[in-house]
TrEMBL record:
It comes from Streptomyces incanus. SUPFAM superfamilies: Thioesterase/thiol ester dehydrase-isomerase. Its EC number is 4.2.1.-. InterPro entries: FabA_FabZ, HotDog_dom_sf. This is 3-hydroxyacyl-ACP dehydratase FabZ family protein.
Length: 159
């Protein structure tokens, strides 16, 4: 099991966009299970008024995908961590297909992200998996592609 120190040692994300709380299982290079507790203290809930219906508290779908992708990033960097986006290899989101949402995620839910490496080709990794709440699938991921590129190649040339 891994907590915030190890997660922050692998991802450059920080509050409010660090969306992985804990890693409960890792099989390096193959699979990972991570948790994200959804709470009403997150900034995206700050402006909801007292008349907001329950469905208005749905966790934003882009953030659900982002949280799952961050879990994939932890798996991809497990054996070679580099949270510094100014040096070494930079993690880039390449694209996604087959992402389906099955039910709304609400504050109080604990997301269990299950990530599996489908395929690795050089510096590109393809993942698949799902997210569950209390054993119920809330999102399935057909494929997400992540690429790694040298930071110095991505940095604009000094003028």
């Amino acid at each position: 099991m891994s907590g915030q120190a190890e997660i922050r040692g692998r991802l450059p994300h920080r509050y409010p966009m660090l969306l992985v709380d804990r890693v409960t299982h890792v099989d390096p290079g193959r699979a990972l299970t991570a948790l994200k507790a959804v709470t009403c203290n997150e900034p995206w809930y700050a402006d909801l008024g007292p008349d907001t219906p329950e469905e208005g508290f749905g966790y934003p779908k882009p953030l659900l995908v982002e949280s799952w992708c961050q879990s994939a990033g932890v798996l991809a960097t497990w054996e070679a961590p580099n949270p510094d986006v100014l040096a070494g290899q930079v993690m880039l989101f390449g694209g996604m297909t087959g992402v389906e949402f099955h039910r709304t995620v609400l504050p109080g839910d604990v997301l269990e992200h299950r990530v599996r490496v489908e395929r690795r080709v050089d510096d590109t990794v393809m993942f698949e998996g799902e997210s569950l709440v209390d054993g119920e699938t809330v999102m399935t991921v057909g494929r997400i592609v992540m690429a790694f590129r040298p930071a110095d190649v991505l940095r604009p040339e000094a003028s």
